[in-house]
Write the structure tokens for this entry.
Amino acid sequence: LSSGINAEYGDSEFAVNASKTLAAMSPIALCIAHRTQLLSRSLNFTECLRLECQIAGPTFALGEFAEGVRALLVEKDNNPRWNPGTLEEVTEEMVDAVFAGDASWQPL
């Protein structure tokens, strides 16, 4: 991710800050967000809402949100223990599992 930002924005202050911010985030959450952005390009608004509803539960069940809250607000150690810990450890299968649910039950 950082290499893409640096390719687009060079060594600008924006690029440096964006890279630092992304490096602190949950690796699997970044992959889920990226997949969501790619998928939503071809969806209308209602379909985007359905997609968000579809992935909300599985994403929350990963525990990354709770870990972020623990690290930033509860213990305030600013040292989240993400699982997996790096982008390289995130597999396609992990991300696929989040998107595997059926959102057809959504009343949208």
Residues 45-61 form the longest helix (17 residues). The chain has a mean pLDDT of 90. The chain is about 65% helix and 0% strand. Residues 28 and 91 are 9 Å apart (CA to CA).
